[in-house]
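ok trying again, last paste got cut off:
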Amino acid sequence: TVARTSQRSQQVDAMVTVFQFNLTMLSTVGLLVGLFLVYNAISFSVVQHRREIGILRAVGMSRRQISLVFLSEATIVGLLGGLVGCGLGFVMAQGLTALVSQSVTDLYGLATVHMTPLSLDMMLEGTSLGVGVALLGALRPSWEASGTVPTRALAPGDYEVVTREQSGYWTGVACVLFAVAGLVSILQPVHGVPIFGYAAVFLLLLGCTLFGPLLLRSLQWLRTYRAGREWSLTSSLAAEQLIRNPGRSSVTLSALVIGLAIMVGVGAMIQSFRYTVEIWIDQTMAADVIVAPTIWWEGNDQDKAVASLAPEALRITRAIPGVLAVDPYREVQAVVQGTQVVLVSRDIRLHAKQSQYLFESGDSNTILNQMIEEKGVIISEVLGERLGLQHGDVIMLATPKGMKELPVLGRFYDYATDGGKVVMDQSLYQTFWPDQDASVLAVYLEPGTNLTHLRSQIEKVVGVRQPVTTISNRELRAEILEIFDRTFRVTYVLELIALCVAVLGIVNTLITAILERQRELATLRALGASTTQIQKLVFWESGYLSMLGVILGVAGGLMLSVLLVKVINKQSFGWTIQLMVPSMTIVEAVCVAAMAGLLAGYIPARWAAKQPIAEGLRYE
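nice, full thing came through this time. structure:
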């Protein structure tokens, strides 16, 4: 067989490209949350300079010029944010690259990664993104600033922009977005990249944010229904404030909803994936000890391809007291219908007796025994999807004795390879390949055998001929799960960034509301409200936002997990994952939202309580 040396590299490149695309999309969510933060920041600036805006409008400045003032402010903020973000991103990349490169090494072979220097192109890209996000976030606040009425801005008292959002209208738009997301999600990927899957994710998240006005309106319904019962004065006033300006509150709620939805959705996807892998390990890797050449554990794909154990090692291991059975597992590279795959041969009769494969349909023991009788093969789900092969089809396998047609007797779930796997009995393999070596030996022990002593015996006896390493079933399981956990650690960093930005958004919203209601709060203080009551008022507002954020965030996250597991993962990697509802992840989201509410309310509450009464009532 003649093949390009770059064929395997192309497979690795394809997997890394998909992984990179997935991380890029998750990073984009952070920018989306940042857009809401810019909205809150510019809104705060508008409120803070409301009197100056009134003066400028009174002396003849046009609405367009007022808008340009705040858009210019947003441009400067975006420019500085982009530059600082590039620097911080480069620092973060040094740590995150180490995590990703370690995962690549674990999965594909030794990878030495050199940090790309921070180039001018990166700086231009970062600053362009910063300015773009800032301008988008500043559009509505700038438009509101241009509509400032000079007489109201210069008159004694407050100037609070009260908006009435049409909750029914936005709820209808959200339902339409959900329907479109469902239709888009069934479209096929483009060159293996789930573009339409991520379009569905974007529409889903956008739809979740549009439910904000409806939930805020529900506070009013609940307040009316439960009036005079459990509602305290401060909780009632806090609900009234959020209801009075649902536009700004909805934007802040949206940032928190997206952050929590990403946390729950990605967490559910990872936990579902991990749960599926654990089931796969427990049911398909039942051998007590794995014996392999030392280079098998330490080398790359090329080293593993030439590493093997001679038939003598199998005979010696079987003769060691305490060994019940040994399965000679052989793994080589092969070509099926022009596609490079992993070909595995093993003692199928022994494997059927001691372990099993997880098949899409059918009984494992029956299918494995059928393989021996009918001289057929089983293929992994990934290979079946890639080549369109089902149970009962025939594959064309390239062997040293020419192309051979072999019946496919089943498709099994496999998470050890990305290119696909074919499994056959060792007797059938040795018919075509003059090869009696084993890549590793799967050793089953007799009941009551001391595992530690037997491992030392194997390493001592078999190691006389060649260096070997043994690993127990428990150690192998732990190693696989450690590689899995390390691969997804980078996603937790991106989730944390989104949540931190959401918390800052709540802080901005509360401080803006305090500035707008300075006279109202001072009046409450003059009527006898204590500083503690004022602080409770702000904490109640923060608590309401957190509570509503949890409701929408968890619901959106569960829907997002379905897209991630059933659409994006399936289209990206071809693996079927058993979806599960992670109760601990939901509990964590509730706790994170509660902590976010407390942290976001602390500074505004202290600031509101310290405002001088005379300052707030100086126009009276």
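cool. DSSP finds 24 helices and nine strands in the chain. The mean pLDDT is 83.
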